[in-house]
Each structure stands twice: as C-alpha cells, then as structure tokens.
Recover the amino acids of this structure.
C-alpha cells in the first residue's frame, strides 16, 4: 500500500495548506453562505460542527486502502483562507479509462469549494490545477471529479484542471476524468 500524505502546495497566488482542526473557526465563516450548498446539499457548519468534521477528516479514512487528503486554500495577497480542495485516493476499479491497478496506479477523486466572496477570481481553478499537478507527482494514475450538470462554474474549474467530461453519471452528476502521465 502506497502512503500519500498531504503536503503544502504553492501556486502563483495560493498556498494549499494541509487541513488542521484549527482552521475550523476561519473556515466556518468562509463557508457560511447557504448558496454554496445549492448543488451539494446540506447547510453550512457552525465552528463547532466544522471542528468536529475536521477532526474526522484529519483522523483519516477508516478504510486502509483509501486516503483522505484535504487542504485549505490561502490567498497569499490577502492573507486569508478562501476555500478547500480535497482528494480521496484509492485503488482504481480496473477500468482502463481510470487507471490500471496492476501498474500500481491509484485513482484520486477531487473536489473543491470557494467561499462566495472569493468566487469569479480564478481561485478555485488555480487551486484545482495545483492539486492535480501535485497528484501527478504521486503514484496516481487518474483523477476524477463529479460535477452537477447545471454547475457551470464547477465545470469551468474541472476544465481548468485538465479534466474532461465523460458519458458517465454518478448520483446525478457528470463524471469528469483526467489520466495522469505515468
């Protein structure tokens, strides 16, 4: 089993910092707009609820074959957190379009969210490109994301990260895919 650990990732304007429970207070404010849940469902967490969630995430997946990697996104010029990116890494299904587990490659399912005040500034696209680029240096054969068909902004982020839509659907969302060069 290959162990992948979240590391800091720097892009032009951003630092992707491995998630810590201490980020919950600031992130609760960043993620407080109910509109962020239009496509993903649920409601915003208060700081205590987010602290509890971050404790679970930082403890890691209960499945030893799956790794949870989570980052907060720091916008360096403004010195504030603006959102999150994440990757859930595990064995591929063996589907040639998602990577062949016989080569040791893994599949990473990625997601992102940017707080409402920082949207439309290219932050999510830059963060997703940084994450996918970093995953390309790991034993990851392919990256997938699931995007609601009406969420044009998220489709633009997936495109910016080099993913392309497939004909596959998962829980009402379109599966996007990118094979990483190995």
């Amino acid at each position: 089993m290959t162990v992948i650990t979240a590391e800091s990732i720097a892009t032009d304007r951003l630092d992707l910092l491995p998630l810590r429970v201490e980020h919950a207070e600031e992130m609760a404010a960043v993620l407080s707009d109910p509109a962020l849940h239009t496509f993903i469902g649920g409601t915003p967490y208060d700081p205590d609820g987010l602290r509890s969630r971050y404790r679970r995430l930082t403890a890691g997946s209960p499945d030893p074959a799956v790794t949870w990697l989570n980052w907060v996104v720091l916008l360096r010029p403004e010195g504030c957190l603006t959102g999150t990116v994440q990757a859930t890494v595990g064995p591929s299904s063996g589907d040639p379009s998602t990577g062949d587990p016989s080569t040791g490659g893994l599949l990473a399912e990625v997601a992102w969210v940017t707080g409402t005040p920082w949207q439309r500034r290219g932050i999510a696209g830059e963060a997703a490109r940084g994450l996918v680029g970093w995953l390309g240096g790991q034993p990851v054969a392919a990256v997938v994301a699931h995007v609601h068909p009406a969420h044009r902004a998220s489709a633009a982020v997936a495109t910016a990260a080099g993913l392309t839509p497939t004909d596959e659907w998962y829980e009402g969302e379109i599966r996007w895919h990118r094979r990483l060069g190995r």
